[in-house]
Amino acid sequence: MGSLPQQNQRKPRFLCLHGFRTSAKIMKTQIGKWPESVLDKLDLVFVDAPFPALGKSDVEGIFDPPYYEWFQSNKEWTEHTNFEECLACIEDYMLKLGPFDGLVGFSQGAILSAALPGLQEKGVALTKVPKIKCLIIIGGAKFRCPAIVENAYASKIDLPSLHFLGETDFLKPMGIKLLESFVDPVVIHHPKGHTVPRLDEKALEIMNNFLDDIQESLMSDDELPTGEEETEEAMV
């Protein structure tokens, strides 16, 4: 019993999924813009997507290669290639580097992160790892592929989620639509585009409150006996 309070102080561990044709190293730099007061509350693990970029990256000349992508899509975003391999890769990371409490995703990584709890609930992804407990979604959207949609958003996603919506982000309308798939989403609005934004005073307050709630929830989970519990613009 004497070691329990120290155990309960552990930081929530998030698996971080980077954006399209970027990398773990790039996302670490992007997230690194957040203040230490936030970063000190998080245990973040950054990983590369499984596939080398098959085309030009939007961050060429800003961030050094190599660049990676999680999967490939048609122009309408209704069909995807290598999606099953992507899911297997993420599960493998979770098995090797976890356990994880949640996911942080940006852009393509955010779209993935927001869909994974539903896919996991339906038993079509991440079946060998603990349930995802929380999400931080930056510049996200919903999948359009019918086979993914019917599983990922079959019912509202009931877990703590924090969503960043950029005022000039081309994905903002789809990010707003994504909110409808969550029971009680927390939202940070920022004036930038498709980027991991810096945190102004209001955003910092919202994020700290969210992380404090996560910490309190994890403390309650950790107290359960074993067996009851089932890581200028985008460019700066």
UniProtKB/TrEMBL annotation:
Coiled-coil boundaries: none
Domain Serine hydrolase: 10-202
Pfam families for the chain: FSH1 (PF03959)
Database matches in PANTHER family: DIHYDROFOLATE REDUCTASE, OVARIAN CANCER GENE-2 PROTEIN-RELATED
Name by which UniProt lists this protein: Serine hydrolase domain-containing protein
Biological classification of the source: Eukaryota, Viridiplantae, Streptophyta, Embryophyta, Tracheophyta
